[in-house]
Amino acid sequence: MSAKITLYDIPGRVAGGAWSPSTWKTRYALNFKGIPFDTIWVEFPDIEAISRKLGTLPTSHRNGKPRYTLPAIHDPNTSTPLAESALIAEYLDSAYPDTPKLFPPGTRPLQYAFIDAFMSHLDALWQFTTPATHAILNPPSQAHVRRTREVAFGRKLEEIAPTGAAAEEEWAKVKSGLEIVAGWQDKGKNDGSFFLGKEPVFVDFAVASFLMFMKKIWGEDSSQWRDISSWSGGRWGTLLKALEKYETAL
Amino acid sequence: MSAKITLYDIPGRVAGGAWSPSTWKTRYALNFKGIPFDTIWVEFPDIEAISRKLGTLPTSHRNGKPRYTLPAIHDPNTSTPLAESALIAEYLDSAYPDTPKLFPPGTRPLQYAFIDAFMSHLDALWQFTTPATHAILNPPSQAHVRRTREVAFGRKLEEIAPTGAAAEEEWAKVKSGLEIVAGWQDKGKNDGSFFLGKEPVFVDFAVASFLMFMKKIWGEDSSQWRDISSWSGGRWGTLLKALEKYETAL
């Protein structure tokens, strides 16, 4: 098993190119396991055609229509095409059993429930991140994001982010959401600095991937990232720092 | 440490008296650990006064006013009064270290996140359970539940449960919510029949407590319980059966 895996990712005009919270989970996963990979960069409008060609399954259906998303990988060692970050993590655990586990035995139900709960507390975030994401994309992906997000939000891209007092209120909701996550983390503070103790697992990389996304789209020196990395005792910056060695392939 | 713990519970006109999903968590916890206890039954209007006398803390605040809830315990062996089922479980793990763990080391953050996610998928349930709960309470608690729930729902108790097509739609949401939980459980099916593997932990008893609540307020022969216990391959009835030995003190 020595041929490199291919990771399909969405390019952005940020350092290193990777910004998507979904694909970061797989990027972290591969680096955490020390599995070599190459990246193929795919613009949003090309994801479906490339996924079909690759042979990955749609990750959801909307109004009866299949939706294809990234990350996807192709593992030439087992001739496996696969989409969706949690499924990819499960696959890597099983296909590369001598690498560190993202889902230690017995933890899958709780890690999936964690992801569900975590995502439910990010509801207020997307109105802020959508225009910022659009801003760092290449033109073909920009057009795609504008079209799909304007339908989803029911308003022009330029009107998605709240302003004035509403912006403050909504940003406070982002903060409270992350404070709930910090509360769960505090419950384990005597067991280690990660959610399951001394070693990071899938949920740590999932949380880190969303933080990375915020850091990438707004930039390290933005007021947004300065806010986020100061919340709950500065722990979110600390978490990224702790996982920094898994940002790039060794 | 041989004196019996006192469990403060809310009485209902059901077999055994216990129906509350919150207090069932502690009932299960004590039995799982084999810790002897006696029950003191408290009607809703008396909870605050008894909690203050006992010295437990309010479990939340609403409009700046403290809210006291059950379960609460008093442990005469350590002179500890304590409210809130998860905190009680943590306390029992720590005060009785030789008993089986509800929160095995490293699992607290994920178990708390699980509870958060689990509760978020029960949103459609309360409109159905509120009138059924009212029906099995004693008159002093009935008056309390009617008053507080009518304020919370903004309509008469008799109008809280949906009817006709709306009832079918809302009941389908209850089903989908529990199907999501079943999906998490399936992720661990190779590791054991409980959420964390071969032995039940706090989240198993939490899920079981809500199932027990539904079974108690509607009755085993109700159409509601027949529905619920048939969903997702009949697993909810199976879970209660698997934990049946922890329903009553040994």
UniProtKB/TrEMBL annotation, chains A, B:
Family matches, as SUPFAM superfamilies: Thioredoxin-like
GO cellular component: cytoplasm
Highest taxon above the source species: Eukaryota
Domain GST N-terminal: from-to ranges: 10-100
Gene3D superfamilies: 1.20.1050.10, Glutaredoxin (3.40.30.10)
Pfam families per the UniProt record, alphabetical: GST_C_7, GST_N_2
PANTHER family per the UniProt record, alphabetical: GLUTATHIONE S-TRANSFERASE OMEGA, PTHR43968
Protein name: GST N-terminal domain-containing protein
Organism the protein comes from: Sphagnurus paluster
